[in-house]
## 1
Amino acid sequence: MKKYYEVILPTAKRPTYFEATHQEEYTPWQRVVVDSARGRELGTISSLPPLWSPTPPPRPDTLTSVVNKEATDSILQVATPQIILQAKERELEAVQALKLARERVQAYQLPMRLLGAFINLDHNRIVFEFCADKRIDFRALVRDLAARLKMRVELRQMGPRDRAILLGGRGICGRQLCCAIWLQDFSSVSVKMAKNQGLSLNPHKVSGACGRLMCCLKFEQASYDNPVPDP
């Protein structure tokens, strides 16, 4: 049996599990360095207890979208003050790189919107997240940015729901978006659920910030499938 801790990463948007090699002990909210598909990253141990499992738990799409066969998916060490400072420097550098990338997108007249950028601790990979209405040939842009930034450049297209997770916001209920603060995966949601719940089928009434059917339709459906009988 191997021990896994749930780690909050800036790139994953949702917590994910990393193996504690040699069975080390970590405490909630402790800052650690992990070896992920994007290289070395700074993460934070969540408040959940460690998970004992013979096989690795499933990986979020944000990590499996990048293939790095050398990644161990493990916690490397507790983050030192120097490493935390280095991570801050990477964040500031990513902001400047994002500004440059947006200028180059305009120069190439590409119909895409850059949402964010991330540089790993190894300083050899930068990931840009973007949204677009259709497929885009950005090979020339990648070569341009790689030559200017002197590191490997990756562009990852975000779907409507991923974009909502990244940008955040509030739903029609007035609360923060479920997908941005706690929802771990997306269950299938159908118009039939809105009909069963007696809701208006106006798209503006049953759609969330992402433009898709609201996830809360799925949460409420169980009450309609198994109503509580009157006393």
## 2
Amino acid sequence: MIALRCAEVAFAYPEQPELFSALNFSVHTGERVGIIGANGAGKTTLFHLLCGLLRPQRGTIERFGNKVDHARFSPDVGLVFQHADDQLFCPTVREDVAFGVQNLGLAPDQVQQRVAQTLAQVGASELIDRIVHQLSGGEKRLVSIAGVLAMQPQLMLFDEPSAGLDLRNRRRLIDLLATLDLTMLIASHDLELLLDLCPRLMLLDRGKLIADGDSQQIMANAELMQRHGQEVPCSLRFKRALNNA
């Protein structure tokens, strides 16, 4: 089943040249797809289009066979923002994770059950009554993910999920994402994270889809990566050096 389809999508910000002119791709249910590109390549804008926060000037975007309705909220897609402080706005963790679920119209006991289950899923049950602004960066990231997971989306979009995390919390995040049985798109400059999680990779540059295919093959192509503002990850350079030794 096709979880996501973009067909001839075009978009430009007001008084700016077109960022996307004819973007085409599809993602199957259950795929984990990494998205890379230099700053300004269009990664965050793409996510906002896929969520319906922005409306394309031309073309169509479909999620699970239905055209995206930009005037209506849909819980089938969840976006985890690059900066957790942009996403967390309630006083306590319990209230923040509950916010989206409450807007689905669930009964209070069902809401609290979802909150407890989701915090347990991300390994953050002990944070449930903490004040949000007192959390560490890694804790805020987990709570942000929990708030989206609580609405039980079918598709999740992660914008720079490892940004600002220390090594321990980064590994904890990778292990968590690897367990989620969801369709995912992950935009990141953390190429090693994408190698761990995403068999498929899309490379964007100035709104154009330059490459779409096997993550290791694309990232190992030094000429391609350099031409579009990227570099071969250390693990692949080391692997190549071993093979040539």
## 3
Amino acid sequence: MIPRDILKKIRQIEIRTNRIVTETLAGQYHSVFKGQGMNFDEVREYQPGDDVRAIDWNVTARMNHPFIKKFVEERELTVMLLVDVSGSGLFGSRERSKRELAAEIASVLAFSAIRNNDKVGLILFTDAVEKFIPPRKGRKHVLRVIREVLFFEPQRRGTDLNVALDFLMHVTPHRAVAVLISDFIGSPAVPQNEHGRALRPQKMLLESLLQASFHLLKQVNRRHDLVAVQITDRFEQELPALGRLVLKDAETGELIELDTGDARRRSIFAERQARAQAETARLFRAAGIDAIQLRTDQPYAGELARFFETRERRRLHG
């Protein structure tokens, strides 16, 4: 029996993300993600303007006037959600953590998928694959996916993209849409504020895991349609001025003391994070992977819609 407070949280996310799917992303999912190919639909009489390359010469010869083959896109897709549940996901400087935002993004994509009669699967990972839910259809299945992303308790706390990507290649032999949701941070520290919420530490360096995973990312993107969603927080870009803090790394347990009241130190940190973020974006581009960054303290529906629009324009004109 699922506890009532968990059911309430899942229901809240379902209502909120369903509204976003309906009002903001309606139709975009269908146009952005390609089917697996073209299926033969029917033979019909040739009409002026039809592509002559589609003429069915056997039927044309029998009927003594031209007929063409009509094809439709095979729409059924498999959407695999690869969600990072390592220790750094506990951080959130506002009302929600990165893990909670990851659950909402997964929910939006999952509900979009089942509206188009697609299958949804889930891989939860840290520096090991923690849980695998095979692709299925239906609302009940999507609600389970949301529950696992929100409330699954991992056995490990580190991060390794390679283990998740390699697992995907083994369990998904046919082309799929693969959405990698992570902060792409290797070992952040997570302090807490007076309300018990996690605050980001000094060791908040954006230690991109992409360099170590670069070749496998390219390989996965060749077989599947890989999209990267980077979940971040404002305090991962700039340190808050909170004075002297003792911070604990959420993935390694390392303790560090830091004076966040030092304006020069905060400036150096912000510059370093900006460079690291630019390098992360460059690596995604070099791997040919579409990527979007979403923050815990900002609305994500509009950003997601613009990302889909840009991706669709590139697909039509590319």
